[in-house]
Amino acid sequence: MVPASPSAARLNWIKNSVEYVRSNIQAMDGYTPGEQPQGGKFIKLNTNENPYPCSPKVKAAIGRVCQTGLQRYPDPAATAFRRQLCELLTGELPDISPEWILCGNGSDDILTIITRTFVDTGDVIRYPNPSYVLYKSLADIQGAEVDVANYQSDWSLPPEFSEPQDRLKLALLANPNSPSGTIVPAAAVAEIADALPCPLVVDEAYVDFADANCLALVAENEKIMVTRTLSKSYALAGLRFGYVVAQPQIISELAKVKDSYNCDALSIAGATAAIEDQAWLAENRAAILATRERLTNELRSLGFECVDSQANFVWCRHPRHDSAQLYRDLKSVGVLVRYMNYPHWGEGLRITVGTDDQIEAFLAILHPLLH
């Protein structure tokens, strides 16, 4: 049977259907993730993934869930993970209990939940520049305005980041920051939170590679929320699991907004097994920090200006070579790094810390491109 042709009215609706989309969604560019090549062979140093396999305990835990079966819904509260995390964090936050923790499908999901909870159309979100570009997309989706505070030349926050403002409902601070890898000390973060008239999210996606964190501040100030992910230090970017630590009265409000089952049974089991294996984390961290130091030193010896990083990547630029061209030249020979160009700041390359073999190959390819 030949299907009927669409009516003129139907064709007109198809043509103009975008008009039904919210105006702020039509206007926004949307978040652009780092490149994930689907074919070919690359040295992939562009999305801050951990270059090593995850703990074997993760695979074993996921296997046990698969053997049990996936016909039932997962625990909507990820209780097993939250209890295990409390054991891990009690030294830094003695009063922590599962009621202080909400889990999500990566920390991006957590950031979305927080934004949806606190920010309404016409409200203001503040974040520094350069920083995680997703923050702008979260504001755009809510129909919120952004108040961007440019980092100072030494990567410290400007005074205006702490200033009160009408309609300011949320401040976001990546700490360690991306793309710079720099960190704002906890004492300074505490002062910022005291001055702000709104909640402050300390996005600690890379904190396991840093020398300090802001977790203890959660108990000191109800406005402070700390978000983390297992994508980076636990080598679970493909699993998608993150969490936020905040005071219980905040967590209970965030829980109203999250999807019913935003973490699946496989991710809960894998994430719980990952944080149980702290010996694996310590070994992995040591390897990445050693390679990070080597990468930084080698880049500087080639004339790059590099920021001292507290994350698993290095931000750099070369005074005599265009960053965009270097990115293109590297990609043409099978090396992916992240080229970024920020308004009112400028461009640079963010290079993920890979294995020693990957970094050695990268440097061997990079050297002749500079001469």
Automatic annotation (TrEMBL):
GO terms for biological process: L-histidine biosynthetic process. It catalyses: L-histidinol phosphate + 2-oxoglutarate = 3-(imidazol-4-yl)-2-oxopropyl phosphate + L-glutamate. CDD domains: AAT_like. The modification N6-(pyridoxal phosphate)lysine is found at residue 232. Pathway: Amino-acid biosynthesis; L-histidine biosynthesis; L-histidine from 5-phospho-alpha-D-ribose 1-diphosphate: step 7/9. InterPro entries: Aminotrans_II_pyridoxalP_BS, Aminotransferase_I/II_large, HisP_aminotrans, PyrdxlP-dep_Trfase, PyrdxlP-dep_Trfase_major, PyrdxlP-dep_Trfase_small. Pfam families: Aminotran_1_2 (PF00155). It is an enzyme of class 2 (transferase). SUPFAM superfamilies: PLP-dependent transferases. Residues 41-364 form the Aminotransferase class I/classII large domain. Keywords: Amino-acid biosynthesis, Aminotransferase, Histidine biosynthesis, Pyridoxal phosphate, Transferase. One of its GO terms (molecular function) is pyridoxal phosphate binding. Its EC number is 2.6.1.9. Its cofactor is pyridoxal 5'-phosphate. Homodimer. Belongs to the class-II pyridoxal-phosphate-dependent aminotransferase family. Histidinol-phosphate aminotransferase subfamily. PANTHER family: HISTIDINOL-PHOSPHATE AMINOTRANSFERASE (PTHR42885:SF2), HISTIDINOL-PHOSPHATE AMINOTRANSFERASE-RELATED (PTHR42885). This is Histidinol-phosphate aminotransferase. The gene is hisC.
